[in-house]
Automatic annotation (TrEMBL):
Residues 140-205 form the HTH luxR-type domain. InterPro entries: CheY-like_superfamily (IPR011006), NreC/VraR/RcsB-like_REC (IPR058245), Sig_transdc_resp-reg_C-effctor (IPR016032), Sig_transdc_resp-reg_receiver (IPR001789), Tscrpt_reg_LuxR_C (IPR000792), WalR-like (IPR039420). The keyword Nucleotide-binding does not apply. The modification 4-aspartylphosphate is found at D52. PROSITE patterns: HTH_LUXR_1, HTH_LUXR_2, RESPONSE_REGULATORY. This is DNA-binding NarL/FixJ family response regulator. Signal peptide: none annotated. Residues 3-117 form the Response regulatory domain. PANTHER family: TWO-COMPONENT RESPONSE REGULATOR. It comes from Streptosporangium sandarakinum. Gene3D superfamilies: 3.40.50.2300.
Length: 222
């Protein structure tokens, strides 16, 4: 059962999310919150938090950063009416596992919850590549450690949003081998999940949007 907390200052929005999610037996809406501070309190220990960006008091970005500190295993999905790339990039850098728009189809919201809960792929990698484009190589810090050629390969595929099974197929290794490489990567990069690894990879210039697109095309041809 996926324990989900709904955070939005509009009760009508929260009710709509709750109605959609309650139709699925594997999802349990455990709490609702109308502001960021309440979202942090209710979301600590939850599996997934659907978080609005604009809320009174503590906004969704600050609440996401606080949740990342307090409850590292909790995954946050930003749900917003705003399509600003800067806002979305800020949310991802704050620790969000992904985002969906409030006008997205109900099925997309449900699948987003399931995907970030499984932690097996990056949510909406095509959007991430577009949003990351202006930020490639902009990080001031150096790569924290040396990455092996195989780890760099795995990181590029993570940036594509591919699952462990897809990466294993592309690199002709086992899923367990990929899982080991992913764990090593997250530890070396100090990333809490795959989305954070992808964001950091773009910022450090370890993978560019152009390289990611070329790798995606090559993988699909294979």
């Amino acid at each position: 059962m996926i324990r989900v907390v709904l955070a939005d200052d509009e009760k009508l929005i929260r009710s709509g999310w709750a109605t959609v999610l309650s139709l699925h037996d594997d999802i349990d809406v455990t709490a609702e919150a109308a502001d960021g501070r309440a979202a942090v309190a209710a979301g600590t220990g939850a599996d997934v938090v659907l978080m609005d960006i604009r809320m009174p008091g503590m906004d969704g970005l600050a609440a996401t950063r606080e949740l990342a500190r307090r409850s590292p295993k909790t995954r946050v999905i930003m749900v917003t009416t705003f399509e600003s790339d800067q806002l979305v990039w800020g949310a991802l850098r704050a620790g969000a596992a992904g985002y969906v728009l409030k006008r997205s189809p109900a099925g997309e919201l449900v699948e987003a919850v399931r995907l970030v809960y499984r932690r097996d792929a990056v949510l909406f990698p095509d959007a991430l590549r577009r949003i990351a484009s202006p930020h490639v190589g902009t990080a001031r810090q150096r790569v924290p450690v040396e990455l092996t050629p195989r780890e760099l390969d795995v990181l590029r595929h993570i940036a594509l949003g591919q699952s462990n099974a897809e990466i294993a197929s592309a690199l002709h290794v086992t899923k367990e081998t990929v899982k080991t490489h992913v764990g090593n990567l997250l530890n070396k990069l100090g990333a809490r999940d795959r989305t954070q690894a992808a964001v950091l990879a773009y910022e450090l210039g370890l993978v560019s949007t152009g390289v990611a697109e070329a790798a995606k095309s090559r993988w699909h041809r294979e």
